[in-house]
Amino acid sequence: MKNPSRRSFIKKASVAVLVPLTGAAAIETKPKTMKNIFIHQVYFWLKNTGSEADRSKLIEGLQKMAKIKLLKNCHIGLPAGTPREVVDGSYAVSWLAFFKTKADQDAYQVDPIHKKFVEDYSHLWSKVVVYDSVDA
Amino acid sequence: MKNPSRRSFIKKASVAVLVPLTGAAAIETKPKTMKNIFIHQVYFWLKNTGSEADRSKLIEGLQKMAKIKLLKNCHIGLPAGTPREVVDGSYAVSWLAFFKTKADQDAYQVDPIHKKFVEDYSHLWSKVVVYDSVDA
Prior knowledge:
The structure is a homodimer.
Chain A: H1 4-29, E1 38-46, H2 52-65, E2 73-79, E3 93-99, H3 102-109, H4 112-121, E4 125-135
Antiparallel strand pairs in A: 1-3, 1-4, 2-3
């Protein structure tokens, strides 16, 4: 070989470039059905029904909650405006939280950020409904 | 420069190597809060409450639904066994579906696979509650 050090460099560079390509392919072909997840879904109804100010405050509280490290992902939502007989669009704000395990959700319940959220914002809501789900 | 072509190669290779590193960093530091998403959450209660056979049939139906192309992601769930006053764990099966847009969810409602699901499996449930959410 004329220039072994350069050949070696090219080999290494090729490997490095192949890694992300494999990663991208894995993302594209992943199954749509999520597995190995704990889903914590909460719907809030405000004491002051229809109060935009109170809704904004509650959203602000949930934005703080989103910083809890145990959370895998979360979503702060509003009713989508899909009036159908089976759709309950009467809630003010929704909070969807994904955890890796049930144990993580248990720990989240007593996380200081979560406790502070309840302390600071629970006066805003009149009703909370929670649905926790694990893989079928 | 002694060897401009090699310098040029190294420069290009470095860029190529940096791309995946940036990609990896983006994944690690991405915000936990999901955005630009339409969330369709459904809870089913069975006519034959507690029937494992009927629950399995319904899950089988949802597994077929998971093939609808408009779905971004979905999850088929069961109550997680988290008894608290605010938790409703009385449903039999949950179905969480993510769409890119409200229009995609509208199209999903009339997708032949969805229509066939309602046709073939709706005799199993006594109650369905749906919550649709968009970003707050």
